[in-house]
Amino acid sequence: MKKVTILLLLLALCSSAYSQRVFRNQFTLYDTREDALNRNHLKTINHMFLNFASLGSVGKTEIAGTKIVVPASWNDYNVYLHIENTFLAYDIAIDGKIIASSEDPYTPADFLISQYLKQGDNDIVILLRGSSYWRIDEGIPFSARKQFDGCYLFAQHRTAVYDYNATITQSNNGQMTLNMDIIVNNDFNFEETVSVGYDIYTPERKLVDYAVRDIVVPGRSRDTLKVKVNLGAESKYLWSAEKPSLYRTNLYIKRNGKPFEYLSVRIGAGSTTFKDGIIYRNGEPIYIRSFKYNALKDRTACRKDILELKKKGFNTLIPDCPQPQWFYEVCDDLGIYVIESAAINPTSNSDDRKIGGTPSNNPKFVDQYLLRVKSMYYRSCNHACIIAYSIGGEKAGNGYCMYKAYQWLKSVEKNRPIICNSADGEWNTDL
């Protein structure tokens, strides 16, 4: 306990609480194409699974930590820390300095931590604490997963694929077209020519197209490589709950003639739209039979559970908050729709529309609402299974914060409906 107390004092003196959160699709990298397709990290050199162990507590602050060893080869890499299942608001400290904070214990988050690491041993500490925004979480049930389950760290070269947006659309004459925006990052101080490779496979694992294309990216900036590929008249591959076919694309960077850092992307062909209160998938109306559902402890158990729900006739899952990344992959694979939900459900005083009566109408909370909606959206927006977004639980209240959350989400999502369950006849909901 004495060591913990000293650590807390050191943290208090050195803290900066400078947020390094990253908003992008949640992904990790693999060393080979095969490992990327199979989601196998056992041989990935620059990927570390993290096991946080309890270091005790002081007052109401619980402390957990782990030690990592940073190799010299990571000098030209960006290092990302992925945190989930904390169950409480938290601060992240590296070697005695708080470098990031989160008031949202439910939405998995990524942080860029390269500048805080040194070669050799590094201590990563999570300080779990109460939050001034705790009321926002009131109606969200306790997770069934193990604390810190799913936390990891990975290193990515400073010239790399930073993010992507991928769609497969069908034209009026039945032709399928892949459109992919590949966002390329260059964190060096000088201009770099980055070679981006990709290969595309049909749901039957037949190679459709492959190429390596160069893009010149100025120093300390990002640029977008646009890829457009005609996939032919393959309407049999349109993704839906009835036929969950997925194209697979491998992205990678090529250096000195050798591929590095594979990223596997699964893409459901077709689109989700809505009109006159009806959600459509590939032009066909979806008759929703929904089930309130949060992911079980692991992918295998979750997959079995979802298969049973499909057998019972359910075609749509509604979680209470963002789920682990593998949950959306399972739903894509099995063909079940998801109404994605932000970690917002302040149930007490939900009918009190005075300013500050419900947190949803408290302007002091608006930044936290927007952060949670933004965090929800970017990490999973490319998944075919998601047919709508919910900005709050059934008794979350309505007001200024919900208005702003709805407006922001509508600004980035043009096709799928946005739902505010507690809109109560107001304008900030599509359904």
What's the quick description here?
This protein has helices spanning 2-14, 33-38, 299-311, 325-334, 366-380, 400-412; strands at residues 21-22, 47-49, 53-58, 61-70, 77-83, 89-94, 97-102, 109-112, 120-129, 152-157, 159-170, 176-186, 192-201, 207-217, 221-232, 247-255, 258-267, 272-275, 278-281, 284-285, 290-292, 316-318, 337-341, 386-390, 418-419. By secondary structure, the protein is of the alpha+beta class. α3 (299-311) runs parallel beside α4 and α5 (366-380) packs parallel to α6.
The number of domains:
3
Unreliable segments (pLDDT under 50, ≥5 consecutive)? none
How far is it from the N-terminal to the C-terminal residue, by CA? 53 Å
SS field, number of helical segments: 6
- Just name the CATH architecture of the largest domain: Alpha-Beta Barrel
SS class? alpha+beta
CATH class of the largest domain: Alpha Beta
CATH-assigned fold name of the largest domain = TIM Barrel
Name the beta content range: 35-45%
Specify the CATH homologous superfamily of the largest domain. Glycosidases
Query: What's the main sheet like?
Result: 5 strands, antiparallel
Spatial strand order of the main sheet:
1-8-5-10-2
User: Rg to the nearest angstrom?
Assistant: 22 Å
The shape, in one word, is: globular
pLDDT averaged residue by residue: 94
Number of strands: 25
Helix content range of the residues, please? Answer: 10-25%
